[in-house]
Design goal:
single chain, alpha+beta, 28 helices
């Protein structure tokens, strides 16, 4: 029988090619999904830890200063340490001045976070490196001198520019405009003001990472956290999404979906293959082969085909992800997607086992069905009509309802519970609920698909070819539903991830909006100094600005009405036209000359609610009524008249800017800094101006989300090809079963063109139904997933990516048309007389 099996594989290679293609695509989908999920996680972690390149541990907490720095450096196994803090100071050169951020030079080459364009990094106290942007604005070259003022004591230091670094392209790069030697950096930074300390271990000493981490934690005390890079990235992810294992969860969900798609397509393909060979298998049994011999022959064929095709599929999946990553990297500054691709044993073993297991099971069921009937019965024409019972309908409906309840419950728990437990409990409910409801949808497709096919067939008109195609599409509801399910899963995957990414991006943008009221602000560092006319003109003439408003800002003492002691100071800002520049102008409703708008953070800090009284300006200050908005920052907004009453001496020292649609925040900020630097050259008395705002952070978060979405949408091509193979297999079996029927129709006058049209309509109907169901399910699951993972940020609004939806519809319909080409070609090439004679 083994020789017969090999002979069948050689002579029937064309039929096996279709089965092999399904296995290749199925395993490639699993491999690409596993690798793409890993790449997504690595890309996000790479972005979040870009400022700590080459480090093994990150120390954060308070206090964190020179004492902790020295104790960390003296710990066994530590090779180097690098402090980080967000401190700015005045820099001047060539009669120009600017307020810039600073950072410490890396003690080791592997810890450098910036790219050196020319020169070298500073080593001596009288050396500095500057960013290319700062060098351009201050007209600096290697060897030039610049001055900077220490933010601690105001002392002026002079240094030589020895290096020029590339300007930062992402918020997560955390690249500063001025790089100081490590010792000088620690001298000029205020005491105990380090935000973090990066720690690199000595590889030559062979230190135990966990041991050094434990030693540092014991040495520094409970107020300080010592985390590995992975833990730091996970915590950063948790801070953004509410769950540290978001990407792991996403990876597992991807793998499950890929497995389901592969199983459906391979099963359908082998159903076609075995159905085509039913007569041959019957002849083997008629001449003496036992059921087990025939079944073993088919299973041996499946094993050989499964091993070879799975190996090809794994290589294809890895190649697709590698190619996609290399194509994406040049378009995503600051994120090396290619370097984030990490091939692990799981990305090879899991697809291989999946391909073998699914191929074996997919072949076992059709082979068992083919050998359960007698040889004479197997030699008769095929009858593919099978219907499902009421028990299956009841189970499917119950699963859909139970899953939907769990999914909705997960969303409600994640959005309305405490941040510490809400996301975890929401995921525990939502993920199983999603899988249960999906299984119910797939199980009940045998009832839903025929009804939707009939509806679409009626909408498509009453042509002869259309009516016959509609009836043929629902002749075997089980097989049509199985084919449709493969397309449903592929389309739902793309729709789910696109909707989830778009919804998540909107939620993160809204969160950033709540932390930063405007896109960009330009304010004098010394609030007692006004923006000069030239500085105002520079802001007004800036390209990429949709609206701007000048105003006055001052730190004002604030206390709850009736409190004896003065409370904290609020950064009170009074723009002349706040409504035109605020990201959420609706927050200004009710603001007048006796009210002040404060954010949630300030309200909680002062113990206030909307409508409470607030005293501004000290013990004898002015009493106002509080309005509370969604803004989470520590500042407050007042009308110009109220600011004049509280602090009449404060000049117009700030400009709030709203970016135009499509404007690049990095370019706008760079242009503004360049213009301000030119002004400082011609007017040495012009005050220093600091430019900041939410736009850069929004761009960086969008950059990460776009990277993840691009990786996900890269799976669309694989899903569509899998759907194409599945639909083509169904049409092929349909043609095989209806050879006599097609011959009779041809004999009665059906033309070859009508026969082609009939199969094309049938393919489009199957693809259309799968696309509709997949889009509806995918959009719903995408929103629910985003709501569960980001519910702690607040209300998560549904955002439908219409561009992706349109692309999916077009591609799916085209796939249905293409899938009909080969079956139609086979059907029209056989003459009616020949087809009738064969039967």
């Amino acid at each position: 029988m083994f020789a017969i099996t090999l002979h069948h594989m050689r002579t029937g290679w064309a039929r096996l090619a279709a089965a092999g293609l399904a296995i290749v695509l199925g395993t490639a989908f699993v491999a690409a999904t596993l690798l793409a999920g890993q790449t997504m996680r690595n890309t996000a972690y790479q972005s979040f830890t870009a400022a700590y390149a080459g480090s093994d541990l990150v120390v954060t907490g308070h206090p964190l200063g020179d004492e902790q720095f020295e104790r960390i450096a003296a710990t066994d196994g530590v090779e180097a340490t690098r402090p980080r803090t967000y401190v700015g100071m005045e820099v001047s050169a060539q009669n120009r001045s600017e307020w810039v951020g600073i950072e410490s030079a890396a003690p080791l080459p592997r810890m450098r976070t910036g790219t050196l364009e020319s020169g070298e990094f500073p080593r001596a106290d009288d050396q500095v490196a500057v960013s290319a942007g700062l060098a351009s604005r201050l007209e600096l070259s290697l060897g030039d001198r610049l001055d900077y003022l220490s933010p601690t004591d105001g002392a002026r230091h002079s240094a030589t520019v020895v290096g020029i670094t590339a300007s930062a392209t992402s918020f997560f790069d955390a690249g500063a405009d001025l790089v100081l030697p490590a010792d000088r950096f620690r001298q000029v930074v205020p005491a105990d003001s380090f935000d973090s300390i990066a720690v690199a271990l000595d590889p030559a000493a062979g230190p135990d990472l966990a041991g050094v981490q434990s030693d540092l934690a014991s040495e520094l005390g409970p107020e300080v956290q010592v985390r590995t890079m992975t833990e730091f990235a996970q915590d950063t992810t948790a801070g953004l999404t509410g769950d540290a294992d978001t990407f792991t969860t996403l990876l597992l969900a991807f793998a499950a979906v890929a497995l389901a798609v592969a199983a459906l397509v391979i099963t359908n393909t082998f159903t076609v293959l075995v159905a085509q060979r039913t007569r041959l298998l019957a002849l083997l049994r008629a001449i003496g082969a036992t059921r087990w011999q025939v079944r073993r022959s088919v299973l041996t064929e499946a094993a050989l085909l499964g091993v070879g095709a799975s190996a090809v599929g794994i290589g294809l999946g890895i190649g697709v992800v590698e190619l996609g990553a290399r194509l994406l990297s040049p378009h995503l500054p600051g994120i090396d997607v290619a370097a984030a691709v990490g091939i692990t044993p799981a990305t090879i073993i899991a697809p291989l086992l999946t391909g073998l297991a699914v191929t074996f099971v997919a072949c076992w069921l059709p082979a068992r069905n083919a050998t359960r009937v007698s040889p004479l019965a197997a030699l008769r024409p095929l009858d593919g009509t099978r219907t499902a019972g009421r028990l299956r309908a009841g189970i499917a409906l119950a699963l859909v309802l139970i899953g939907a309840v769990m999914l909705v419950g997960g969303v409600l728990v994640a959005t309305r519970s405490e941040p510490a437990t809400g996301p975890e409990v929401g995921l525990l409910l939502g993920i199983p609920g999603g899988f249960i409801s999906v299984f119910g949808i797939l199980l009940g497709a045998v009832y839903v698909v025929p009804a939707v096919v009939r509806l679409l067939g009626r909408l498509g008109g009453g042509s002869v070819a259309g009516r016959i195609a509609t009836e043929n599409a629902i002749r075997n509801p089980r097989r049509t539903a199985t084919t449709t399910n493969a397309l449903v899963i592929g389309v739902a995957l793309v729709a789910m991830m696109s909707t989830g990414a778009a919804t998540g991006q909107r939620a993160l943008e809204e969160e950033l909006t709540s932390n930063f009221p405007v896109d960009l602000s330009a304010a004098t560092v010394d609030q007692t100094l006004a923006l000069t006319p030239d500085q105002r003109d520079a802001v007004t003439a800036l390209e990429g600005i949709d609206a701007l408003s000048f105003g006055r800002a001052e730190w004002i003492e604030a206390a709850a009405d009736g409190a004896d002691d003065a409370g904290p100071t609020l950064a009170l800002t009074a723009p002349a036209d706040a409504r035109s520049v605020l990201q959420n102008p609706g927050d200004l409703a009710g603001l007048d000359d006796r009210t002040v708008l404060i954010g949630n953070t300030s309200a909680r800090m002062l113990g206030l609610s909307a409508g409470d009284g607030l005293r501004l300006g000290g013990r004898d200050g002015i009493e106002v009524t509080v309005l509370v908005n969604s803004y989470d920052g520590a500042s407050a907004i007042a009308t110009p008249a109220l600011m004049t009453e509280i602090a009449p001496e404060v000049p117009e020292n700030v400009a709030w800017l709203a970016l135009a649609d499509g404007a690049d925040p990095l370019e706008v900020g760079e242009s503004l800094n360049e213009a301000l630097a030119r002004i400082s050259e011609t007017d040495p008395e012009a005050p220093l101006v600091a430019v900041e705002g939410s736009a850069l952070e929004r761009v960086s978060f969008a950059q990460v989300i776009d990277t993840l979405l691009a990786v996900v949408l890269g799976l669309l091509a694989v899903a569509v090809v899998i759907a194409l193979v599945g639909v083509a297999n169904t049409l092929a079996l349909s043609v095989l079963e209806r050879r006599r029927e097609s011959a009779v129709l041809r004999a009665m006058g059906l033309t070859r063109g009508q026969l082609r049209a009939m199969l094309a309509i049938e393919g489009v109907l199957i693809a259309g139904v799968g696309t509709i169901i997949g889009l509806i399910a995918g959009i719903a699951y995408g929103w629910a997933g985003a709501a569960v993972m980001l519910g702690q940020l607040g209300h998560v609004s549904l955002v439908i990516p219409w561009g992706t939806v349109g692309a999916v519809v077009v591609v799916a319909v085209a796939a249905g048309l293409l899938a009909s080409v080969l079956p139609a070609r086979s059907a029209v090439r056989t003459s009616p007389v020949e087809a009738l004679a064969e039967e």
